[in-house]
Design a protein that fits this description.
This protein is an alpha+beta fold. It has a domain at about 10-70 and about 100-110: hypothetical protein PF0899 fold. The chain is about 25% helix and about 30% strand. Strand 3 (about 70-75) and strand 4 (about 80) form a beta hairpin. It is elongated. Bound molecules: zinc ion. Zinc ion binds near residues 76, 77, 79, 88 and 90.
């Protein structure tokens, strides 16, 4: 049977998120009851595994993971469109920038 590695990408991400939270809150991390995490689709992470990994690190904390869909903006005509419509559905340009979807971080924490 196939076995999963102990340290997944999501577990490493969860540790980075926790380090960020500690950097922001210091000792008050112990009082946190809930956190909200934003994960952009561009990171190709499994949001359920991010939630599980973060819950393992913060067992008493209500962890909510929001997935942010990728949104492109055309550099030529300014149209905004989802990732599956790339290139630009309006003018066909491949010159696009990402408007949303590369988020990765804790957006809220509450005690
Ligand atoms: Zn366009």
């Amino acid at each position: 049977m196939h076995t999963e590695p102990d340290v997944s990408v999501e577990a490493e991400v969860a540790m980075q998120l926790l380090e960020g939270l500690r950097a922001q809150l210091g000792g008050r991390v112990a009082q946190v009851k809930g956190v909200e995490v934003e994960v952009g689709e561009a990171h190709s992470l499994d949001p359920a595994r991010v939630q599980v990994a973060l819950t393992l690190l913060l067992p008493e904390v209500d962890v909510r993971v929001n997935v942010v869909a990728v949104l492109w903006k055309c550099s030529d005509c300014g149209a905004e469109f989802p990732a599956d419509e790339h290139p630009c559905p309006v003018c066909g340009s491949v010159r696009v920038t990402m408007v949303r979807g590369d988020e990765l971080g804790i957006t809220r924490a509450w005690a």
